[in-house]
Design a protein that fits this description.
211 residues, alpha/beta, Rossmann fold, Arc Repressor Mutant, subunit A, 2 domains, six-stranded parallel β-sheet, 13% strand
Length: 211
C-alpha cells in the first residue's frame, strides 16, 4: 500500500516510516503540516494518508475534509494522541476512514490499517462504541431532497449498521456477488452524499434511517 505520513514531529515520522516499511508498505511522502499533506496527496495520489490532528498551518480535521472532498479515492486515517471524543466525531464527519490512537500496539495498528485498506471503518471497539452512542442520539430528520434508497440498498445499510461492513461478508449474507455489493454501497454513499462506510453507519444511526 502506498502511504503518505502527515505529522509535525520528525522523530515520530521516522519511527512510523520504519515500521511501515518493515511490513512491506511503500511510504511515498511525508508532510509536516496540513497544507503539505493536501498538496502532496494531490501530487502523489497515495492509497492512504496517516494524518495527525494537531499540526501547524492547517490542522488534521481541515486537511481531511479538503482531501476527502477533492480526492475521495484516497483513504484518510487519523493517527493521533488525542482521546477527545469531539475530535473523534469531527474526524469521522470530515470523511476519515478511521481514528487510531498512537498508543496502539503494532499488531492492532496493522490490523486496523488492513481494515481501512479494505474500505472498512478502522476503529478500536472502545472508540466505535463512543461513535455509535454519539450518532444514535436523536436529531432532526434527514433532508427531504435526498434520493430515497432502494429496498436492496436498505438491506445493505442495515447489515452495515449491524457491523457487517466488508464486501465479502455483505455478499455472503445477501447471496450476491462482491461487485454487486460494491455497486450498492457506492449508490448509498452517493445518495447520502457521504465519503466512506464509517460515515454511512453514523449517519444511518443519527437519522434513524434503519431500525
Amino acid at each position: 500500500m502506498r502511504i503518505l505520513i502527515a505529522d509535525d514531529h520528525a522523530l515520530f515520522r521516522d519511527g512510523l516510516r520504519s515500521l511501515l516499511l518493515a511490513q512491506g508498505h511503500d511510504v511515498v511522502g511525508e508532510a509536516k503540516n496540513g497544507h503539505e499533506a493536501v498538496s502532496l496527496a494531490r501530487e502523489l495520489k497515495p492509497d492512504m494518508v496517516l494524518m495527525d490532528l494537531q499540526m501547524p498551518e492547517l490542522d488534521g480535521i481541515a486537511a481531511t475534509r479538503a482531501l476527502t472532498a477533492e480526492l475521495p479515492e484516497v483513504k484518510v486515517l487519523i493517527l493521533t494522541a488525542s482521546e477527545e471524543e469531539s475530535k473523534l466525531f469531527d474526524a469521522i464527519k470530515s470523511g476519515a476512514q478511521g481514528y487510531l490512537l498512537k498508543n496502539l500496539e503494532a499488531d492492532a495498528f496493522f490490523d486496523l490499517l488492513d481494515r481501512a485498506q479494505r474500505g472498512e471503518p478502522a476503529l478500536t471497539p472502545a472508540l466505535a462504541r463512543k461513535l455509535l452512542q454519539e450518532f444514535a442520539r436523536p436529531t432532526e430528520a434527514s433532508s427531504s431532497d435526498e434520493e430515497p434508497l432502494t429496498p436492496r440498498e436498505r438491506e445493505v445499510l442495515e447489515l452495515m449498521v449491524e457491523g457487517i461492513t466488508s464486501n465479502r461478508k455483505l455478499a455472503k449474507r445477501l447471496g450476491l456477488s462482491e461487485n454487486t455489493v460494491k455497486f450498492h454501497v457506492r449508490n448509498i454513499l452517493d445518495k447520502l452524499r457521504l465519503h466512506n462506510r464509517a460515515e454511512v453507519v453514523g449517519y444511518a444511526l443519527r437519522h434513524k434511517i434503519v431500525p
